[in-house]
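S.,

Sequence below, as promised.
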Amino acid sequence: MKDYYQVLGVPRGASADEIKKSYRRLAKQHHPDVNRGDKAAEEKFKGISEAYNVLSDPEQRRKYDLFSQGGFGGAGPGGFSWQSTGAGPEGFDFRQADFGDLGDLFGELFNMGGVRRKAPRPEWGRSGPEAPVNGHDTYAEVEVAFEEAIAGTERKISIRRGDKVEKLTVKVPAGVDNGSKVRISGKGQPGFGGGRSGDLYLRIHVSPHPDFWREGADVYTEVPITIYDAVLGAAVEVPTLDGHASMKVPSGTEGGQKFRLKGKGAPKLGERGKGDQYVIVKIVPPKDIGSEERKTFEDLALKYPYDPKS
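The prediction came back faster than expected:
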């Protein structure tokens, strides 16, 4: 079993915030958009995403910790056997577990696609079936780009329902976030004896963006400004989800200061309206200065000293 904590470079007792910060740093470093054509970086990015997908969800993390520490005897997931039943066109991998209720638990933790559960059989009495039996739910994972999560998108998937493979076009609603679950009614395993079909649940994984990150419906980005903009104030252009916007930076702005662009965030899932965008300012001094520029700064420092702690 992969050591997801080692992949993210955090200890087992790391907080959710520590895991998120490490994931953002590593994902930005190894993102395919930053390392175009680098297969090693692409594989590294996939491993980082897989690790975060498990450790960022409290329930998934609990199960992972249980199994990775030998909670069921060490070798593999408790020594039980399970097998792949095929993959869909969008990277879905549907697996079947043959060990009863543990199928859900193992399937959610170890699959990288959907989980196919064996359909339940009705209980037969002396005079026929006792009662309708409802079908089980089916689970699948979908990876979408950051922009697709904001705007909404569709995915074509193949899932096994009973003894048949069905092709579905599923809608991913606007505003989903990493770890969101989308329910598709009646597309799980079929029931028996008049029982209803289970539901299909899509667990969403959102690929990181090189410039933006999210906290709920709020979107964050970092924008560099010059020392002159910080001292004198200026109107700077900042990237937004739907293009660019002009933002006023007041005189005396400090590095790390945060500004809000109201309503420029992601759609609020299941609600009306949007979140906000927060722009964090990073002051970047000139990299190369000549002797004349240095003399000017030295004169200013002598003539107009100030205490940055006050």
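The chain is about 25% helix and 30% strand.

Coffee later?
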